[in-house]
Every structure is written in C-alpha cells, then in structure tokens.
Amino acid sequence: MIDYNPKNWWKFIFYFHKSDTFSKLMPAMLGIAAYTAIFAYVENNILHYVPIRNPLTVHSLVGFVLSLLLVFRTNTAYDRWWEGRKIWGSFTNNSRNFALKLSTLLPEGHTSRETIRILIGNYLQATKDHLRGKAKVDHLTFTATYNEDYYKDHKHIPNRVAKALYTEIYKLHQEGLFNLEQFLALNNELSSFTDNLGACERIKNTPIPVSYNIFIKKIIFIYVFTMPITAVLEYKFWSIPIVTLVFYAFAGIEIMAEEIEEPFGTDANDLGLDNMVVNIKGNLLEIL
Amino acid sequence: MIDYNPKNWWKFIFYFHKSDTFSKLMPAMLGIAAYTAIFAYVENNILHYVPIRNPLTVHSLVGFVLSLLLVFRTNTAYDRWWEGRKIWGSFTNNSRNFALKLSTLLPEGHTSRETIRILIGNYLQATKDHLRGKAKVDHLTFTATYNEDYYKDHKHIPNRVAKALYTEIYKLHQEGLFNLEQFLALNNELSSFTDNLGACERIKNTPIPVSYNIFIKKIIFIYVFTMPITAVLEYKFWSIPIVTLVFYAFAGIEIMAEEIEEPFGTDANDLGLDNMVVNIKGNLLEIL
Amino acid sequence: MIDYNPKNWWKFIFYFHKSDTFSKLMPAMLGIAAYTAIFAYVENNILHYVPIRNPLTVHSLVGFVLSLLLVFRTNTAYDRWWEGRKIWGSFTNNSRNFALKLSTLLPEGHTSRETIRILIGNYLQATKDHLRGKAKVDHLTFTATYNEDYYKDHKHIPNRVAKALYTEIYKLHQEGLFNLEQFLALNNELSSFTDNLGACERIKNTPIPVSYNIFIKKIIFIYVFTMPITAVLEYKFWSIPIVTLVFYAFAGIEIMAEEIEEPFGTDANDLGLDNMVVNIKGNLLEIL
Amino acid sequence: MIDYNPKNWWKFIFYFHKSDTFSKLMPAMLGIAAYTAIFAYVENNILHYVPIRNPLTVHSLVGFVLSLLLVFRTNTAYDRWWEGRKIWGSFTNNSRNFALKLSTLLPEGHTSRETIRILIGNYLQATKDHLRGKAKVDHLTFTATYNEDYYKDHKHIPNRVAKALYTEIYKLHQEGLFNLEQFLALNNELSSFTDNLGACERIKNTPIPVSYNIFIKKIIFIYVFTMPITAVLEYKFWSIPIVTLVFYAFAGIEIMAEEIEEPFGTDANDLGLDNMVVNIKGNLLEIL
Amino acid sequence: MIDYNPKNWWKFIFYFHKSDTFSKLMPAMLGIAAYTAIFAYVENNILHYVPIRNPLTVHSLVGFVLSLLLVFRTNTAYDRWWEGRKIWGSFTNNSRNFALKLSTLLPEGHTSRETIRILIGNYLQATKDHLRGKAKVDHLTFTATYNEDYYKDHKHIPNRVAKALYTEIYKLHQEGLFNLEQFLALNNELSSFTDNLGACERIKNTPIPVSYNIFIKKIIFIYVFTMPITAVLEYKFWSIPIVTLVFYAFAGIEIMAEEIEEPFGTDANDLGLDNMVVNIKGNLLEIL
C-alpha cells in the first residue's frame, strides 16, 4: 500500500508511476489511438463519408448502463478490499487480546510465554504468505518443539500453526494452569483467528461471478471499438484523443476494480500486510 | 464455480463458452437481428419513410430508468450470492469449531468421535443435495446406528441428520461426559448449523418479488421491440447490429442476475459447494 | 407469495394476471392514452402547431432525478420486504430452538410439553393475523387453561399468548424443573419472540415518510400530464403509445414499491406467511 | 408522524396540506416564476435574442451530478430516520424486558415495583423532551424520593433519571434481593437505555457535514437561477412553469431530506414519539 | 465541527467562509476562467472557427461515469466519517459503563477511583492527540504513579495509558477486590477501548486506494481542460462562467470527500472531538 496525501492535486494529475492505471493502460491506449486514426483517415479522406446527426446517441444509451455496471463492480471490489482491511484490523486486536489474557493467566517467566508469542507471530506470517500464494516454512521462527520438521511436508501452514497453538493451550490446561471455562474461552479466541483466515480465503478464492467479468470486458470492447465508426465523421482527427480517453475512463475503472478486489497481494493498492505483521509482532513482544 | 484470472482481457473478450451469457442469448439475438432487418428493409426500401430528428429520445428516457432497475436487480442478486457464500464459510468454520470442542471433551478413541465426524459430513452433504433439489440417501455415509433404514422414508434429510447429532450429544451428556453448561453450549453450536440451513432455504425459496421479474422483462421486451421502428430511419441497416447489441446489454444483465440470485446450483456462476463439502470432510478427518 | 421460475421469459412478457402491475395500471393507462390522443388531435389537426426542436429536453432533466428517486423508493421498500422475510426466518429458528431446549429440560410426557407447543403455535398464528389487521381468537387452539375466555376481550392477542408462555415457564421454574440461569435463558428466548413481533410492527406501522410518497406521485403526475404538450408536435399520434408506456414505466415502479413495502399482507408479492406458520407448527409437533 | 394509506394516488396528487413540500416551497416558486417571466419578457420582447441550439446542454451535465448528490443526501437522511425508528423500537423492547426481569425477581407488592415503573416512564418522557430541545421537569411523575427537588437544577434530566434507576437497583441488591450476577445483568440492561440515548443524541447533534449542505444549496441556486437565461429563448413564456417545476423537483428533495434527517421533532414526517411513550407506559403498567 | 441550522437556505447560498468549498476552490476557479477566456478569444476572434453541432456530447458521456465515481467517492468518505462518529459515541458509552461498573465494585473513597478516572481521561485525550498527529505528554493529567516520567520516551502514548489501566485493574484483582470473572469482564471492557482505537487508526491510516484518487483527479482535469475547446464555439464568452461552474461542481465534490474521509482533524467538517473529550471527562467526574 502506498501512503499518500490525498489533497495533493497537481502531483496526482501529472503522476505517471509504473503502477498507475494510466501507465498500465498506455499500450492499449496507443493501439486504440492508431485504430481510430485509421478510421478517421479512411472515412474522411478516402471514402468521403458525410457526417450524420447525433453520431453518439447509441453509445450514450449503452454508456449509461455500462457506467452503472462499472460502479456496481467498483462497489463490490471496494467492499472486499475494506472487509480485508477490517479482518486484518481484527487480527491485530485479537492477537493482542489473546496475549493479554495469557499474560494474566500465565506466571511471569513461564516458558510457554515465549513459545506462544512465537506461534502467534508465525500464524500471521504464514497467513500472509498463504494469502500471497504459498506459505514458506523458512519465513517462520522455530522453537525447540515446533521446528522445521514440524512444519515441512504440510500444505496448509497456517492450520499447522493453529494446531500447535491449540496443543500448547491444551497442555497448559492439563497442567492445571487454568480451569475448563478459561480453557474454552481461550479456545474461542483461537477460533477467531481461524475464522479470520477463513474470511480472507473467502475473499481471495471467490472473485465476482465470472459472467460479470466477461460481460463488462465484452461491452467495453464493443463500445470502444465501434465508437470510431461514427465519431470520426463528426470529430475528424479529434476523435483520436476522444476515443482514447473514453477508453481510459471505462477500462481504468475496470482495471482498478481488478486490483483491489483481491487485496492481499503486493500491488500498489493492496493492503500493507508486511507492515501490519511487523507491528503485531512488535506488540506481542511488549506484552508476553 | 469457474476459477479464473480476472485480469485476462483478451481471453474474456473472445470467450464464447456455452455457459457464457453471449452464447445463451445468441438465438434471441439472431431473432432480433432478423426482426430489425425486416423493419429496415420495409421502412427504407418499400415505404421510403423520411428520417426523423432524435429518433431515440424516448428510448433514452426509458433506458435510464430501466438501467437503474437492472442495477437494483443486480445488487439484490449479488447480495444473495455473497450471503450464500458467507453461510457456507460459516458452515466450514462451525463444523471445525464443533469438532475441535468435541475433540477436547471426548477422550481419544471414544467411538462417538467417528460417528459424529460422519454425521457432520452427512449433514453438509445432505444440505448441498437438498439445496440442489433433493437430498439423496445414497450420497450419505452410514454407521451402525444411522444406516439406510434410519434415513429412508424421510423427506427432509438434513433435519434427520441433525436429529441424529442431537441424539448423540444427548447420549454423551447422559453418560456424564460433559456437564449441563457444556451440553447446552454444544446444543448452541448445533443450532448454528440449522440456522445456516434456514438461511440457505430462505435465499433459495424467496426469489425477488415476482412483479419485478415480470416488469423488467416486459420493459426490456417493449424497449427492444420498439427500437427498430425509428432507429432504422436514421441508421438504416446499421441498426441491425445496434439493436442486437442493445438487447445483449440489457438482457445480459437480467440473465446474469437470474443465474446468481439462486447460488446453490451447478451453473458456471454458482458457488463451488462440491469442493467445499470435500474440504470440510477432509478437515474433520484431521480433527476428530 | 407466488412461487415461480424466474427464467421463463416468454411467460412473463405475455403474462397479464389480475395482480400484475400491467393489469393494475390498465385503467389509468387507457385514460392517459385518451388524454394524449386529444392533445395530438387538437395541436396537430386543429391548431396546426409547428414542431419544436428537442421536445423532451426538460422531461429528460426531470426524468433523471425522478428515476433516481424511484430507485431510492424501490431500495427502501425491498429492504423492508427482505427484513420481514428475515424476521420470519428467525421466528422459524427461534421456535424450533426454544422447543429443543425445553424438550431437553422437560421429562418425556410432562403435560406442559403439549401446552407450550400449542402456545407457540398460537403465538405465530396470532402474530400473522395481527399483522394482517386483527388477530382472531377462533384461529387459535385452546387448552384447558388458555381457552376462549382467556383470550377474548383482549386487544393485543400475541401479547396475551406471550403472557401465557411466560406464566408457564415461571410455573415450571417454581416446580424446580430448571434453575434460575436456565429460567433466565428461556426468558431470553421468549424475548426474542416479542422482539421479532416488535420489528414486524415497526415495518408495518412506519411507512416511508409521507412527504416522499406525495412528492413522487406529484412528480409522476406532472411529468406524464405535461408530456403530450410537446411530444405530440414531434411524434404525432405515435405519442399515444409513447406517453402511455412512459407512464407504465414510472408508475409501475411506484406501484410495485407500494406492494412490497408492507410485506405481511396477502398480495401476490407478499411473504408466504400462511405456509410458514403451517411449517413451524409441523416442526413443533415433531420436537415436543 | 402522519399515518396514511400509501396507495391513495389521487389524494396525494392534489394534496396541499400546509406541511406538504409543495406548500412549503410555494413562496419560493412564485418568486422564481416572476424571475423567469422577467427574463422571458426582456430577452424575447425587448432584446429580441435569437434562439440557440441545445439551450439546456450544460444544465443537463450539471443536473446529473446534482441529482446524484441529492440521492446521496436522501439516502443518508433516510438512514438516520430509520435508525432513529429502530432505536425507539429498542427502547420499547428494552423497557419491557427490563420490567419483565424485575417482575420475576421482585416479590409481588414490593414498593420498588411502582418506583421503578415510574422511573422508566420518566426516563422515556425526559428523553423525548430532551431530544426535542429541553426536558421539562413538570412532564415527569414524582415519587416520594424522586420528587421535583430531585430533578430541578439539573441540566441533563434523562441522566438524572438513570442515576435514580441505578440507585434503586443498587439498593435492592444491598437488600439481598438478587445476587451479584443478576445485579450486573440488570446494570447491563440499564446501560442499553443510556446507549440508546447516546445514539439518539448522535443523530440529533451530528448533521451531515456542513460543506455538503452549503454545496447542495449553492448548486441548486446557481442551477435554477441560470436556467432562464437560455431557456426563455427556446421555450418563451412556457419556461415560467418549466423553471418553476424544475426548482420544485430539486429543492423539494433537499427540503424533505432536511425534515427527516433529524427525526425526533414534531414535523409531519418525524417519528411518532408521543404515541410510543404512551404505549410503553401502558405496557409497563401491565407488567410491573 | 460547525454546528448549524440545516434549514437556513439564504445564509448558505451566500456563505463564503474561508473553510467553505467555494472559497477553497476560488484560486483554481479564477485560473480556469482565465484559461477559458483565452480559448474563447482565440477561437472566435482570431481563428474564426465555426460552431459545431453538439459540442458537449463527449463530455456528456464521460461526465456520466465521472459523476458516478464521485458519488462512490462521497459514499465511502461519508461512511468513514460516520463510522468515526460511531466509534467516538462508543468511547463515550464505554468509558461511562466502565466507570459505573468500577464504582459498584470499588468501595467509596478508595484511592484507585481517582487514579482510574484520570487514566480514562488521559486515554481519550491521548487518543485524540494521537489521531491528530502526535500525542502530547503535557496534555495529560499526572498522578503520583503515572507521572511525566512514566509517559515520556514512549511513542504510542494511548497504549502506554492502556497499560497503566491494565496494571491498576490487575493490582485491584490481586488485592482481592474482585474475583476472576469480574476481572476478566473488566479486561474485556478495556479491550473495547483498544479495539476502538484500532478502528480509528484503520480509518486514519487506510485512505481510499491511491489509484482512485489519481484517477478521479486526472479525469476531472482532462474533463475541465478539454471543455473550452468546443464549448467556446457554441457559448462564446458565456463559456467562461459555464466551464468555471462545471469545475466547481466536480472538484467541489472531490474536495469535500477529501475533507471528511479523515474525520479526526480540526477542519470545519471534522468531528468535534474536543467537545467530546471534555464531556466524557465531565461524566467521569460525576460517576467515580
């Protein structure tokens, strides 16, 4: 995630970073400009077509419903992005609350304090990697019991860490350090971790229904590629920037929605998971 | 559900899978093209009508309110689809949490562990089949007690499985394996299963009010079938692709909404319940 | 509520059931057609007005804001309808859960089992009748204690049934059948019944603020009745179907919103409360 | 709040009650009609300007974004209104549940029953008055302990009543009538009263950010007052009703949003708090 | 936050406070007026271009999707603003409820009453300052134990205050003033403070994805700066106010969204945190 000052107009207007929508669409925009130029030349200079009235009436009709669909697309993508952000805010709060409860129940200096602190950190680290494709064992911190052997050859590393956490809590319960009610309460806290992971996986694995994706892309394509046919009669070579910028407006919204609908990656618009994991680990170190 | 890469533009623009909206609408689109062609020929070549100004003004007025209605339709359909997805995410979490609690309370090797694991799997299997029309007894796994005889001749198989689960929990409570509070807590977990099923049935059995369905279809019909009357005067034979594509834009949105508003089927856009049930059963096997 | 297959296009396009919006608006549509015909005849054939350019520009401006208001209206009406559906889903779940808890706590064959089963059924029956105007005592099932005399001469029958349920639970608590915590838990379950009833009454008794209702109807009226003034100059007698269908589009949306915003009646679009009450009573019979 | 039948079209179309939006805007509408008439006379009859093409293109561009802002305004205002309604529904339920719990815990005939019943009634009465400007001591019912002296010279009367309720509950706890858990549970119920009051105050004291209010009013003003400049060239004296009605459409939506965004007053669109308080007091009398 | 009467139309229409959107945009508006004037002079008086038909058709197409994006922007910004308001309403309620519970559990005159009251006040004070950039130690009230030394050299002052609160509660628990259940309940109340802080930080640190910010500003820029090219042909020097006001409408909505999306500052539209903190401190003084 890029941290930025939203009030800086000039910078943004003339900002052409490589991760910017404008830059991403540049090759396609050049292609469409060339395509429109050919139409403009052929219709005006070779075939000498005469202008028609209201050359864009039909595009106006369809542009309306396309705009509304793009806003629907943007809203659903943003909702996923914001839900992802809330889930990671919940990870932050839950890990701290879980640690605070344990720090009350466990005597100072008990060896499990460090183990559990490391395991929570591992859980979040593994979750982040898992959401970005594949959890990597060598990103984890090992303890005597939960070392490389414990993790390797397992597919779903976050669940493996969760199992270790459950085992530790169960062991402490067996040692009589907390009674059944407290044990079940801590179990519930752990459940909230796996529930959050489940919600992240839901966002990651359930994109918007494929029909909408196909439909929006098809309509944008038809819309932009039929526009020069009539537009060049009215606007001559001015239609080159016009069609290009209309394409930028519509395709840009779709591109941005694609970026944020899966918010756990490393794109400029994705959530800053790296920072969050580091912050949480720092918090845990203070508490446990 | 089809898993796909949402960023693949070219593939989607030229994608004509049989379950794609474009392919589904193809016969209707051909019909409308022919219908428009007849108008174009008759009005221009036989009757020699003269063009009118602003041939599509009225369609523009009505197209606006129709577009807004279609977005309303899309939003409500998507909300059902996403709610369905959340409910099945909740099934995943609840079944795992329920199993985890039991695995703590039941001694290792207790025979009820396997019975309950099988029953939870059956519950989800039966729910999936039930939501797709009819739960099938031969999709279930039988145990000594809950065998084919137990299920057959019952209409609502998921409720029958739930009853078996309640009975097992009650029996274990009678055996003194957990106290009243723990028994009631487990009962509450079971309630969440039946609540989820109730929510799925609500989505499945309560489509959008029939008036909206009729109204939207009527307006699309009137809109598209009156369009050639004036459009052919201005756009001549070009109105054939124009009217056809306007029909594609409006009817496509309605078709997609129809597909996702009942998300438990086996359409390309429906939720991947098959995979989810298999995954949950795998999780249970690890826990209990 | 009418159960229907949403994918049947042809049926809906040519469907003119008496409860259909089209049929309901038919008399008004005929009136507007006649009104427009008079304008068309007078302005074109008697006064011989000349056409003006852009006859519908102002209607386009106002039509936009009117369309947005109608969508606002539709969204709020649909939210009530769907909230009503959720409340009745909650009635279904709560009555079953309440019965399940009691069936665990009460010994098999205890006389209160039947009494409470009948009272829950009565509660839902009375609630349904109450929401449809007036609860009728003769729709209830009587027991020895809670017979016709108990209910008659009371205005708010559902509350009267709730009082009977509270009395029964209190009596069982006095008999020592469950301890204070269990008693309070059951009390909470009963509260959820009365909370649901309160939510239904809120939906029923709080329509959209009257200003919006007046405003939307006034704007539709002005919009449609001023349209022929200029439209007949451009579209001649074609303006008769045009104005009529524009009226159908706008008034139809308002009519549908009126129907679903109060979802507890017996209209074609209202919720199927009759079936739900029957289903719940069937479920209770199995449990208690 | 006015209770009305939403399906009565003719009544609403010709309804000009003094609290109606149309009546409220009448003086402004007359002023705008006069203003437009002056333009029409000067430009057409004195200066003899010639018509321009597309006189309202710019108004169409701006009208679009203004309409969307007005719908945003309407949605947020309606959300407050509906949230206010839900809070008062919650007051109804909570006061009844609180009374029901106490009626179980307190022996029949205990003097605190009446005191607490009066205090709850006072709380809601004082809250209503407080939300309408200033809680009035003489609207309250006094008891021996909590008489006029207790309330006078205090600014925030609802909090003063809440303190009396807390004191009573604490006293009963000291008398040993309920144990610590029950005492804390009752405390939680009381918290929900003050939480609801806090939510009402939030709605009342936090209007939509002032910038939006200024912006919308400025845009409506500019929009309507610049409209005659070009409109009179095309529509001559017909522009008088046209501009007036466009003003009615836009300003009416803003006026209605202003009315409902603060839903606790005594306007025709505000919530019927008077009735609700009377109903709740009646319910309490039956229970305690 | 500015407190205002939303019904005062004339005041707002002619209100040009320095924090008003109109005043903020004034310099940019003057620049755009000059820019348009140059186009008008050059195209009409030097180059003598002839008018084209429909000069703003393309702007109408793009203006539509831009308007929808701006409403999306406004909705998300407003949601943050309102969520921020709810969180601070929750701070108010939680601090009062926490104080009320403690005042019941701690004997009158216990020294911890004052300490905890001061710490809660410090927490909210530090949170406010923290959200506005940097918590300042000299804004806090010191006690014997938690004096300047305790706070200085720590970055995250609110967490430092929270630690003090946890320590105090833990100490009182060790002294036997409340049992484990009550201790855990108080811990949960404290968690709600840190959860609220986390939610505030989420709103503050996670602006809308940067792509949207860049995209909207770019489109507004392109939209406004290309408008004079064709508009001056039709509207001559009238296009100066026209383009300027169109810029005001679009940029104004973006500017307002920027202001409210981060609602914890000291802008005219931001939440009145200063008053809230003072009010809460006053409430605490009455209770503890």
UniProtKB/TrEMBL annotation, chains A, B, C, D, E:
Membrane topology value: Multi-pass membrane protein
Keyword field contains Hydrolase: no
Main localization, broad class: membrane
Taxonomic superkingdom: Bacteria
Keywords: Cell membrane, Ion transport, Membrane, Transmembrane, Transmembrane helix, Transport
Transmembrane segments: 21-42, 54-72, 212-231, 237-257
Compartments in which it is found: Cell membrane
Pfam name, any one: Bestrophin_2
UniProt xrefs under InterPro entries: YneE/VCCN1/2-like
Membership in a protein family: Belongs to the anion channel-forming bestrophin (TC 1.A.46) family.
Protein name: Bestrophin family protein
Source organism (scientific name): Emticicia soli
Lineage of origin: Bacteria, Pseudomonadati, Bacteroidota, Cytophagia, Cytophagales
